Amino acid sequence: MRNLNSSLDTGENPSPSTNNSLTVITPTEKITSKSFNYVNLDLIDKELACPICFFPFYDPVVHSSCGNTFCRECVNSLSQCPICHEGDFSSEKVTVVKIIRNQLDKLAVFCPMCKNVVNRGELKNHQEKYCPLRDAYQQVEQMKRDLEKEFEEKKMKLEQEFQEKNQKLDREHSLYLEQAENELKQKEKELMKQF
Description:
Layout: E1 37-38, E2 60-63, E3 69-71, H1 72-75, E4 93-95, H2 98-105, E5 108-110, E6 117-119, H3 123-130, H4 134-194
Antiparallel strand pairs: 1-5, 2-3, 2-4, 5-6
Keywords: Coiled coil, Metal-binding, Zinc, Zinc-finger
Pfam family, one: zf-RING_UBOX
Protein name: RING-type domain-containing protein
């Protein structure tokens, strides 16, 4: 089977540390097959892998002309099938049968919070109800949001101060130029009187 994850090319078994991000799948997040940290991509049947992204399908669709299956996200912007190059892809996508979806939901993935192994189809439920680090993660997320808000407020304040100082410098510069022009005119008048 073709390697589906470049980190597996070395023959190492993936561990929870292969994905160091602390991403949690939330209802507002755009989920793709790459959103998951699979336990071992080499053991996943290649028939369950998208020929475009090479990861297990997420929200799979079948092209009605050739029967090839893809992640919906991978073909959303395509007009034709990337394999058979036929048919208007946008109107000919068919949702995959339930048995394939069930197989995909049973794939083992690591919870990005606690690093426990759960079925892909149960990850969101695990994160919302059973993950031992859920509360701590939510606190960290709240702290992150608070820090981002504080950063934005400070950034806006600094930008405003910069703008005010810049305007003050512009006014001082204009006054200085005006004074210099007046002095120059005065000296010109004095020189003209001498001749």
